[in-house]
Amino acid sequence: MKRIGVLTSGGDAPGMNAAVRSITRYGIYHDMEVYGIKRGYEGLIDGEVERLYRRSVGDILQRGGTILKTARSEHFRTREGMEKAYNVLKDLMIENLIVIGGDGTLTGAKEFSQNFGVNVIGLPGTIDNDLAYTDETIGFDTAINTVLEGITRIRDTSSAHERTTIIEVMGRRCGDIALYAGITGGAESVLLPELDNDLDAVCEKVISGVREGKLHDIIIKAEGVPVDSKELVKIISERTGRDVKLVVLSYLQRGGSPTFRDRMLATMSGARAIDLIKQGVRNRAIGIRNGEIFDMDIAEALESTRTVDLDLYKGVDILSM
Ligand code: F6P
Predict the structure, then answer these.
(1) What does 237-293 look like in DSSP terms, one character per residue?
(2) pLDDT value of position 1
(3) What pLDDT score does 299 carry?
(4) What SS3 class is residue 190?
């Protein structure tokens, strides 16, 4: 009888519950015992582990957040913390650990497998989309749609008052939320942490827009851009003479019922994780590439890098002329 532990870690993301549900029900279907670990690696160290049954994951598919709760764990980054975590799994005879989280979570799992031999399977669960090995992470699509709702509302009031609005979005050091929401939300400019952002060009775009009779401007700034957002309001206001407002969407982007895309990605990734454990395939990261679910060695996955799609970036400017 194979035993599996599952945990969610790092920033929560819509779709994490769908993944936990899929892992639990596919695991039970294949005669495995599934154990839920509360509060990520911190909860594992503290032994907060409870058996999951079919009914344990009822009525969660549509809910954001995570029934397992999540936390960030400095303790797990220490040898002593990792050893405590290992001993909890050993005492419960759990040999397979499925982790759902972002870069830090999957990196912790990789190190756990390298140091203690635990079989780890990583699912990409973060709104940031900052795991380069996969086209998309669980939660990213829902977060983008949340930002788009915000942009639509802000366009109304920005037009009414003929204002320029800076919208700050999440993503840590990744600009994907800003870029993809910018191009599909009709922003005039996007500021990304991966690029040098030309504020002169941003201000020139605002001024030329006014000349052409534009009623408003939307500038989307990723939180990782090293310019204070309130300072940016002042800079653009002084250089353009416009009435500039700031909206920080913050934790709104982390909540909400997961979209179809996130539910599919989460559900299919969970099923893949159970298949890999069933086949005895070890230490893999699961992702999606060109619409297909795939898996690869977790260490190799974490070495992947991705550059900004400059065609999309240029498209923001062209489409908002
Ligand atoms: O990693 C997801 C994320 O939402 C980032 O976009 C954001 O910078 C961070 O989490 C916020 O972390 P916390 O919830 O610990 O404040």
Answers:
(1) HHHH---EEEEE-GGGGG-SPPPHHHHHHHHHHHHHHHHHHHHT--SEEEEEETTEE
(2) 87
(3) 98
(4) strand
Q: For position 314, what pLDDT does the model report?
A: 97
Report the C-alpha gap between 304 and 274 in whole angstroms: 24
- Which residue ranges make up each domain of the chain? 3-139+258-303, 142-254
* Residue 43, phi then psi, degrees to nearest 5: -65, -30
Query: Cβ(136) to ligand 1 under 6 A?
Result: no
| Distance (Å, whole) CA 286 – CA 295 | 4
Q: What is the CATH number of domain 3-139+258-303?
A: 3.40.50.450
Q: Which residues of the chain have pLDDT under 50?
A: none
Rounded to whole angstroms, the Cα distance separating 14 from 172 reads 17
Q: Ligand 1 centre from 301 Cα, in Å?
A: 22
Check whether domain 142-254 has CATH 3.40.50.460, yes or no: yes
Measuring CA to CA, which residue among 319, 182, 157 is closest to residue 245? 157
pTM: 0.97
Cβ neighbour number for residue 306 with a 10 Å cutoff: 15
Intrachain domains 3-139+258-303 and 142-254 with the same fold: yes
- Ligand 1 and 171: CB distance under 6 A: yes
